[in-house]
Amino acid sequence: MSDLLHEEEIGQWRRTHYSSEINSSLEDREVIIMGWVSSKRDHGNIQFIIIRDRYGDIQVMAKKSECSKRLFGQLQQIKEHTSLAIRGTVRPQEKAPSGVEIIPLELKAFSIARKAAPFMMQSKTSIGIDTRLDLRAIDLRRNILQSIFHIRYTVLNASREFLARQGFIEVNTPKMIATATEGGAALFPIFYYDREAFLAQSPQLYKEQLTMAFESVFEIGPIFRAEPSRTNRHLSEAISIDIEKAFVDYNDVMSLLERMILHVLDSVKEKNKNDLAYLEFQLPNIELPFARYSYSDLIEQLQGGGERIRWGDDLSPQAMKNLPDDRMNGFYFITDWPTSIKPFYVKPKFVPESGRVSESFDLMYGPLEISSGSTRVNRKDELLERMKKQGLNTQAFDYHLKVFDYGVPPHAGFGVGLERLIMAITKIDNIRDASLYPRDIDRLSP
Ligand code: ATP
Ligand code: MG
Which of 114, 196, 326, 369 has the greatest number of CB atoms lying within 10 Å of its CB? Predict the structure, then answer.
């Protein structure tokens, strides 16, 4: 066999231990580790190679005097990112990060890295996000992204767990649809056999209908929005945690939402200690209930501070930053939005303001919108009127309006943008790093 490093099959070799399982109790034991070369130092007569697997790093140390000539030569040829297995002996080593290192006996390279990655694996700050996204699968090996996506998994699990415990059942609604549900962001048209159809902007109308059969439903799934502007908080394809519940109003679901956020944060604190330590921050201790500010009060405050904003305008993040005090930190709700700037299914509030404001809320984190929710209109005549006021073609919604002849219950719900929530929890400022393969106006691959 040649001394040149070459690619081999896995054959009968199997990993005996993950990096995190190798400690001093295994002293002098033979182990097989598998993973990727994350860094390498060659001092001539001695080589250090760090192998990374899904649970962390382990150091391999080879001395020329202790190693076969062939193995030492192979180790010298190895490049970062090569995937491999090493059979070796565990030895205590004070200076190694885990207190032990592996003295190699044999090496199998599975796939030899041919190029140096254009970014450093260990660095927290990095070069332009587009270069990273072009090689996303490799970028995702970086510690910082590992931490973000481990936290994301906890957030998903904790949300499911919480909602299931509250009696919700998980549903999946169609993503290919015939009509729009949300104003604002545009739809993506698609070919549907011989017709035009669209990718769903939200599960809104379906989840509302499902309250008739199941009362409390939730869906965790993609929403598609043709956002024309380039911002750090909009994706063309995002994941939304949507809920809808019968026989309640917006106050009930606001309370449900803040309890869900609390459960999510508690779970991340418990399950992602290492990730939080790596990201170098502690999650805030939040207290319930979250502060609630009415839209009208905030507009008055903004106007009082000299901002040129009128009642009925949307509250942009730029405007929010100019609020006269710093109460708008962390999580809080903005409630009772003008009916005119909320979608047609949002219920107007009839006392005391006679429909000008709606039973609606946004959950905010600082200037960032995390969720929108509301009580929904549950009577057909009222829904028709709201649609007409917003200039919608009511015929296109016949399939939906029909069910209102059969006892739609009073109901309320919300949609949380998963990536926005991850931004709030991990303090990243570009939403693209909360998505594995982000889609935006400029990017459709990888
Ligand atoms: P924004 O005003 O920030 O554009 P929106 O009010 O249009 O958001 P909603 O229709 O209220 O969004 O959607 C519910 C939630 O889904 C939002 O609060 C947000 O967290 C998330 N969301 C909406 N659009 C996007 C997007 N393009 N990218 C990522 N998340 C989004
Ligand atoms: Mg919204």
Answer: 369
